[in-house]
Structure prediction request, 276 residues.
Amino acid sequence: MLLGAQLIVAGCTAGREVSRPENPSPALMRVKCLITTRGTSARCHVLQTVPEIEARVVTALSMRRSEAFMHRGRPAWIDYTFNIQVQPSDFNALPKNLYASWEKKTSGETEEQKTDAELRQLASFLCRHQLLDFPATSRLPAGADPSLLIRREDLLFLWRQPFLAPFTELDRRDLHEDVAHFVSCEVTEVRASGDTAVVSLRRSSPPWEALPLDLLDSEDVLAPRVLTDRLQALQRWAEMHPARGEPSVHSLAFVKSSEGWFADYHLPEKAHPAAP
Prediction:
């Protein structure tokens, strides 16, 4: 069953409509997401936009995780409409890592704790979307802005040489955004020093490479009547084919700029190593 609800994101002084209020009225942005039975946000769709902050808001909502909604004692799929109010004077003040500022905070949190929490969230998100070894940006959710997540030098390198990006049957059918909701990524260690960091993770995933063609090419997957048909078909298969063996072990490098933390894949450096 697909339920519906609305949420007003409070405290954010921090068919599509454009909200253009006159000062001092707050601008209103409305985004509808499907909340999965795992508490992740799927296929976020902008109903009413504020162009100056759209990328940051949609990226933050795509990364958001919460407790699953319960219906009659069981996790339920739910359509959720987020209403975000922002004062126009605060458009430029909203951080690029808005996703981190929306997480629950502990009073008295230190800068080290904030850094640790932000890196954990960013690494887990990239891990679930299979961006561990390469910044295949097409695997990110629709509307998520890669420039808020990945180092500019890597994105420029990929833009000039797009043929380097991996391409699988899941990429061919644009399924990475959906299978990510059934992948588990556990951060085991965060090592931050100055403006660089390395995050270690353990990843558990159903064997998506074994998805049968009859499911990949089925109507539920290729042309679902509603989005939940595709997600539920993938969920049923994932439950019948759980992850096997030990979780795979990975690490992700990050670099900090004046705007925050970004994943660092070292693409230009690997392609053109410095002379010894």
Remarks:
- The first helix runs from residue 54 to 63.
